Amino acid sequence: MSPITLPRLVITALLTAASVGSLAADSAHDHSHHAATHVNADAMALSSRSQAITLPDVDVVRDDGQRMRFPQAIDDGRPVVLDFIYTSCTAICPVTSQVFMEFRELLGPTQRDSVNMVSVSIDPEQDTPRQLSKYAKRFGSAGTWAHYTGSTKDSETIQRAFNVWRGDKMNHQPVTFIRAAVGQPWIRIDGFLSPTDLLTQYRQQVPLPAGKK
Questions:
Q1: pTM of the full predicted structure?
Q2: Sheet of 67-69: strands edge to edge?
Q3: If residue 116 lies in a helix (H) or strand (E), which one and from where to where?
Q4: What residues contact 164, with CB distance under 8 A and at least 6 apart?
Q5: Which helix (H) or strand (E) holds 47?
Q6: Rounded to whole angstroms, how far apart are CA atoms 209 and 162?
Q7: Using H for helix, E for strand and C for coil, what is the string for the chain?
Q8: Please, which residues bridge with residue 62 across strands?
Q9: Closest among 74, 70, 88, 68 to 172, alpha carbons compared
Q10: Alpha-carbon torsion angle 44, 178, 116, 171, nearest 10
Q11: DSSP letters along 137-150, please?
Q12: C-beta separation of 138 from 49 below 8 A
């Protein structure tokens, strides 16, 4: 039997429900000065392209409290799958994190440890290592999927390096990055991936070793 994963129609339904809930919450609390998190039509259409990225040499803190430089967190010899999240997000991040979790399951026990899965917070003021750890546990990410935070300035520097800086966390859109190896270009995928979409994109960059299934 094939693994049960989030199909794109389910992703659409989840996002619609989350967006409605977010708007209702904003209305109830009269947060009229905040732009409600919304998902535009472009986010549902996948597009991918190669992107050259220079990793900024800034400090980050992993969800277990370990402090390191950002290139150290990324360049550990494994292929990288990376996205940007924040823990109080109610629309985009729970869906993309669920996709990351199911992608990890699709890789299987013999392959999942061979991927450096990374989520970087775009809300470092709120997303302490402890808060990120609580968020990560919702998706069973221990071991092969690390969450990072840092200073507000360093977070912005990282987002600008990946060209995802939008000025406000409420304006962020779903973007996933894949890099096969150090020195290789990054593949940038804009839009919502299903777990099988992500696996297909990953395997295009990182084929299975000979003899593996």
A1: 0.81
A2: 47-51, 186-190, 175-179, 80-85, 116-121, 145-149, 59-62, 67-69
A3: strand 116-121
A4: 84, 122, 172, 173, 175
A5: strand 47-51
A6: 29
A7: CCCCCCCHHHHHHHHHHHHHHHHHHHHHCCCCCCCCCCCCHHHHCCEEEEECCCCCCCEEEECCCCEEEHHHHHCCCCCEEEEEECCCCCCHHHHHHHHHHHHHHHHCCCCHHHCEEEEEECCCCCCCHHHHHHHHHHCCCCCCEEEEECCHHHHHHHHHHCCCCCCCHHHCCCEEEEECCCCCCEEEEECCCCHHHHHHHHHHHCCCCCCCC
A8: 148
A9: 88
A10: -40
A11: HHTT-TTTEEEEE-
A12: no
| Tokens standing for residue 209 | 């070793």
Contact, 42 vs 92, CB < 8 A? no
Kindly report, residue by residue over 157-187, the tens digit of the pLDDT: 999 999 999 999 999 999 999 999 999 999 9
Identify the residue whose tokens are 């360049």: 75
Q: Which two tokens stand for residue 31?
A: 């947060």
pLDDT digits (tens, 9 = 90+) for 93-129: 999 999 999 999 999 988 989 999 999 999 999 999 9
Tokens coding 34: 């905040």
